[in-house]
Amino acid sequence: MTEAEQIRFRFLCEQENTDAVPEGDSIGTYGEKRLHRILKRFVDGGGADFEVPIGRYIADVREGERITEIQTGSFYPLLPKLRQYLEQTECSVTVVYPIFADRLLLRIDPDTGEVLRKRHYRHDGRIEDVLPQIYWLRELLPSPRVTVRVLLLGVEEHRYSERVRYRRAGAYEAELFPKELLGEVFLRTAEDYRHFLPQEIDSFDAAFYAKVGGMKPRAANAALKVFCSMGLLRREKVGKKFVYQKQKLS
Questions:
Q1: What does 98-127 look like in DSSP terms, one character per residue?
Q2: Rg (CA), the chain
């Protein structure tokens, strides 16, 4: 990540956060939200086409022989789409996934615009948060034609509620305002994923991995299945539990 990229991302955020999206916007109108639009503009190298039909799917961005999919939610729906891109084209595919690493939550009175409460979540999201999503694409990975690009973002979330209810849980409307690019990681090769493994030991169980990785058990198990499918780990049953052994790639 370069300083120029950070400046460009900040500019796109400021532009999108202050300007209304013009009617008939050439970027496309598939129910996009603010973050999705910003990321599409950010990954455009200058000659990209947006919302490009490929078979029975619509690619978010295509620039020559490169396809980019912006995925702000689960990767589960992506598998058939990516499989078709890889089978029916010669394109490489990049999946862009944003993680909110720094989030400022503002509770706002919808009538007066007064900020009722602020809460700052520093280090809210981490790179490891992408692993449970990659689980859904594990049959395609690793591949020189598939890259997962993780963007760490700073965002503001505005929640609107009545003044008398702001201290209690309840229904509210919310808006997300991306602010800055804090970092990025490209995951392409098996070695890129090796960095997610504990460095100091060669074998461990799922509970240990979840603890050292600060992950919930379900997320940790999904990540371990990804590593096994890539050949980074071998799973063996020892007594009543499974133990994962690091493997050297040929």
A1: EEEEEEEEEEE-TTT--EEEEEEEET-S-G
A2: 21
Cα separation, 105 vs 122, in Å, equals 11
Which of helix, strand or coil describes residue 15?
helix
Could you report the per-residue pLDDT of 96-122, keeping only the tens digit for each?
999 999 999 888 877 788 888 888 887
Q: What is the pLDDT of residue 115?
A: 86
Tokens of 75: 């990767």
β-strand partners of 92: 66
How many Cβ atoms sit within 10 Å of the Cβ of residue 10? Answer: 15
The alpha helices in the chain, defined as continuous H runs, are 3-18, 34-43, 78-88, 131-134, 190-194, 206-213, 217-229
The three-point CA angle 194-68-100 to 5° equals 60
